[in-house]
Give the backbone structure.
Amino acid sequence: MDAQLNELSQRVGNALKQQSLTLATVESCTGGWVAQVVTHTPGSSAWFERGFITYANDAKVEMLGVSPETIAEYGAVSEETAAEMAAGALVNSNAMISLAVSGVAGPSGGSPDKPVGTVCFAWCKLGREPETERRHFDGDRDSIRRQAVVCVLEGLLARLK
């Protein structure tokens, strides 16, 4: 684990512990990288509840309750789908806060509306509506995925302040 990701995970863990919150992650394009980063931190079992890797659309629907209509209308890579992913993580876990990542990491799969590097994020706290964000990252597949991991964890920290 590189120093930046390690430090970011420790900051996330400290913020969650201070607020007595537990986290669930939902990942598509990052394939479990966020969960790997947070569980690398010793003691993360005190604040990391579970992770979902819902790469296929059917998994998003079956495991999280994402509406097939949302995916059909907006696509898997959309703020709308990410919001439903984050909300579904709270319904299907014991966590109190969640984050979701869905994107086009490449090298193929992009479109004019959603080119490679497009990533949608959502964060949801129990009892609240999800907050979403859409970003575009440059680089190769690993670089895009790593940037997405950093962005979603930094976004979580911002929402915990």
